[in-house]
């Protein structure tokens, strides 16, 4: 009986500290710090290659339409927050553009030609210029950026922007 109690006591001596240690190491497991907005904006391309050239072209036409129209409706005198929102959008767009190889090329363009977000005019001209860089690489016609406001209408003459 004494021997049994001794064995029980000794095994408790071993089990109890190891249980404490396990709990401690779970608590101590380092939690990864959250990424900063800058790290998220400047991360690598997320999407895989897009092989289908028809889908690639359709996606390109729609995306350029979205980008140029966004610039045409961007405030003439944006606040700091609005400027940062557009800059962030463009960098995230370059990460998440659904054609991976296009996104990689676009990130290289952004590295040389960072988004210009100080006004509607500068943003529109910047988008036109980067589109022309892509056009040149794909051996497409170069667009006259002097005609950008004719082509992409703001459409906001008689509207108020609703801000909550
Ligand atoms: C960010 C991005 C990167 C891309 N990268 C690639 C790539 O690496 N490889 C690839 O195969 N495809 C890529 N594409 C798609 C490609 O740019 C075209 O959209 C696609 O080839 C279809 O071309 P498109 O001739 O119909 O005219 P698009 O280039 O799609 O242009 C649509 C219309 O916009 C007008 N336009 C043309 N140039 C300008 C300009 N500079 N400013 C304003 N308006 C203009 C014209 O009226 C034109 O018809 C990319 C698209 C985007 C948005």
UniProtKB/TrEMBL annotation:
InterPro entries for this protein: ALR/ERV, ERV/ALR_sulphydryl_oxid_sf, ERV/ALR_sulphydryl_oxidase
Enzyme class, first EC level, given as a word: oxidoreductase
Domain of life: Eukaryota
Keywords associated with the record: Disulfide bond, FAD, Flavoprotein, Oxidoreductase
GO cellular component, one term: mitochondrion
This protein's record includes keyword Transmembrane: no
EC numbers on record: 1.8.3.2
Domain ERV/ALR sulfhydryl oxidase residue range list: 52-152
Keyword Transmembrane: no
GO molecular function: flavin adenine dinucleotide binding; flavin-dependent sulfhydryl oxidase activity
Reaction(s) catalysed by this chain's protein: 2 R'C(R)SH + O2 = R'C(R)S-S(R)CR' + H2O2
Cofactor: FAD
Name of the protein: Sulfhydryl oxidase
Organism: Glomus cerebriforme
């Amino acid at each position: 009986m004494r021997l049994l109690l001794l064995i029980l006591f000794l095994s408790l001596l071993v089990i109890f500290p190891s249980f404490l240690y396990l709990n401690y190491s779970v608590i101590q497991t380092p939690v990864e710090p959250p990424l900063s907005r800058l790290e998220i904006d400047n991360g690598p391309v997320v999407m895989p290659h897009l092989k289908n050239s028809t889908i690639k072209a359709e996606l390109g036409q729609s995306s350029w339409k979205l980008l140029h129209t966004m610039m045409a409706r961007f405030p003439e005198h944006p606040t700091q927050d609005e400027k940062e929102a557009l800059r962030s959008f463009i960098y995230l767009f370059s990460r998440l553009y659904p054609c991976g190889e296009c996104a990689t090329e676009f990130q290289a363009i952004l590295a040389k030609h960072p988004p210009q977000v100080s006004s509607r005019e500068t943003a529109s001209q910047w988008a036109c210029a980067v589109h022309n860089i892509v056009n040149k690489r794909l051996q497409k016609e170069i667009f006259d950026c002097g005609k950008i406001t004719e082509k992409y209408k703001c459409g906001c003459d008689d509207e108020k922007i609703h801000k909550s």
